[in-house]
Structures are given as C-alpha cells and as structure tokens.
Amino acid sequence: MIRPLLSRFPARKQALAAVAVLGAVGIAATACASGGSGGRSATGSGARPAPTRTSPGSSPGPDSQNGSNSSGGSTSPSQPQSQPQSQSHGGGSSSGGPSTPNTSGTTPIAPNTTPGYRPPATPRTNANVDCSVAKCIALTFDDGPGPDTGRLLDLLKAQNVPATFFVLGDQAVKYPALVNREYAEGNEVGNHTWDHKDLSTLSAVAVQNEINRAADAIAATGIPRPTLVRPPYGAVDDTVRTVAGFPFIMWRVDPEDWKYPDPTRIADQIVGHAKPGRIVLSHDTHKTTVDAMPAVIQRLKQQGYTFVTVSTLMKGTALQNGKSYFNRPAASSTQH
Question: Which among 251, 261, 311, 260 has a CA at the least distance from the CA of 281?
Fold first, then answer.
C-alpha cells in the first residue's frame, strides 16, 4: 500500500529527499563548528587544532620538548621552535645561548711540557728594585705545592707580591700546573730536592740524584730549570757543598709554622723578626700558614717593606755554588 501512495504523490517524495539532504548538511556543519576555530588555524597554516595547546605565547606542552608541536603542523613564525630539553641542563642557557664559563679554577689548565719548551720570559714584580737601597724582604715557601698553594697564589697576585717557592720534585709531579702557575705569575721557583731527604746523610751520588731528579720534575712542568737550592732542614756537609753544584738559600726568619699552626702567632713571628734584606721561611703546605699571609703582607707593607724574590734580593751579589746564604750580604767597606 505504501508504494502506490508514494507514486501518487511525487512532490512529497522529492520533499522527503530534500529533508534528508538538509539533515546531512546540518550534521556536517555541526561537526565542523565543534573544531573551535572555524576550521582554520590562527596562523593560516591549515594545521589541525591541538586540543591541549594553551593560549599563544604560553610555554609549550610536553609534546614540544623535542622540537615538534602536538598538532603535527609547523609552529608560528613569531613563536620559535622550542629546543631540546637537554639544553637547559649542565650549566647551559635554557634559551640556547652560550653557556657560562667555569671560573672556579678547580680544574687547572695542563702546562706545556713539550721537550725543550721554555715559556716566554715573564717579568718579575719588583724585579728592577735595588735592594741595596730599598727596604726589601723575601718571602719563601717550602715543601709544596699543596692543596692551599692555589689560594696563596691568588693572594700574592692580588697584592702584587712576588715570592720564591722551593718545590719538592715529587710534589711537582703531583701538581705540575701549580708549579707552572707559580712561575707564570711572576714568582721564583727553586729546588728543594726530590723528597726532602737530609742531604748530609747521603752519598755524593745520592745527593746529586736528589737535586737533579727534582730539577727534571720542575722543568717538566714547562718552566726553566731552577738555579737555587734549599737543602731540607738546612743540612749540608762538605760532601753536599762539593757536589751540589748550586748556591744554597737558607733563611733568617723562621716562624716554626710546622710546629705552631696558629695564624696569629705565625704572623707575629714573621713581622716581629723582619729586617731589611732578610729571607723568611714558611710552608705553603700548611693551611694556617696561608691563613697568616694576608696579615703578614699588610703589616710589612705598612712598615715600608718591598717584597722581592730571592734572586732580586741577591742582585749584585755573585752567588757561589756550595755556599749558604741567609740574607742579602751587607755591602763591604770597599763598595762605599
């Protein structure tokens, strides 16, 4: 009965078909409207909308950490593509800029130890001072380098104070960069033997070995071989004097910093016994000695002293191999 009825009303049939078509169009329009941007992105790129993306200018979501956005399309020209997350770690800049250099100094630069290499001549602070006229004093440090030597070098450089370091060969092997730095910053480096043996108890061959082995280790740090020797304990005998082949640099002021680890006492002993032309003994291997140095330098400067290396202190004096020197020799009457 239905078929005949429909056939009798062709206009109704066309109307029903039209209704069906309009219904389908409406459903499609509704689905398109639900996309949220009229079916086109704000940038005009035609990318599919990203439901999890926040407003423009906000931080990208987790899907963009590796340089891709969550919509799968290109990013806006005004929005630079985010960098990999790993670039924001390890001291680098999160914006992809250059990282901040390490200025802690905990990893010193290795010295040039190429055979035959000699660093360029380094001007010594106060090297031109005439200590026959000026009120000079020489600070010397034995047994290093050690863990506190770098801190001492920082102080000496800041105060424009040169010193002389009598280095042990085995310590030069352990801290080559510090030995190189001692010389490079205008200080003098001397020889304190290989491992601090009492030279007066050794054979002639053993004495030479202690001195030469230390000189080799010091030169291997990239600086000139030392020309001054400080014998451990100040102990020398006729054998040592005969075979050493270098002048011996002793001392006139000894704060006994190894025995009394008190910065105040150390400073008082050095300043209290200071006189023009004297050589001061101390040890950069003791923390308390390094702690005492700011007060020593300040107080001696206030008294008008000029700090010099041993070689500058002795300038004009013909140092002789095997002879011991405790201070700058007084001018003889024939020199007046």
Answer: 251
Q: Considering the entire predicted model, what is its pTM?
A: 0.66
Q: How many domains does the chain have?
A: 1
Query: Which residue type occupies 266?
Result: I
pLDDT tens for each residue of 144-162:
999 999 999 999 999 999 9
Query: Looking at residue 305, which CATH number applies to its domain?
Result: 3.20.20.370
Residue 118 confidence (pLDDT): 54
**Residues 235/199, Cβ–Cβ less than 8 Å:** yes
What CA–CA distances, in Å, run from 60 to 78, 96, 153?
A: 14, 16, 49
| 98 Cβ neighbours under 8 A, 6+ residues apart | none
**Is residue 140 one of the residues assigned to a domain?**
no
Is 225 a member of any domain? yes
Is residue 19 included in any domain, yes or no? no
Q: And the tokens for 56?
A: 């423009």
Nearest by Cα to 299 from 118, 137, 78, 99: 137
Tokens matching residue 297: 């330098």
Tens-digit pLDDT profile for residues 54-92: 333 333 333 333 333 333 333 333 343 333 333 333 333
List, by residue number, the catalytic residues: 142, 283
H/E element holding 241? helix 238-243
Exposure string for 19-36, b = 16+ CB within 10 A, e = fewer: eeeeeeeeeeeeeeeeee
Task: Return d(Cα 178, Cα 120) in angstroms, integer.
Answer: 17
Range of the domain at 295: 146-317
- The tokens for 145 are 């380098």
* Mean pLDDT value of segment 187-212: 98
> Is 252 a member of any domain?
yes
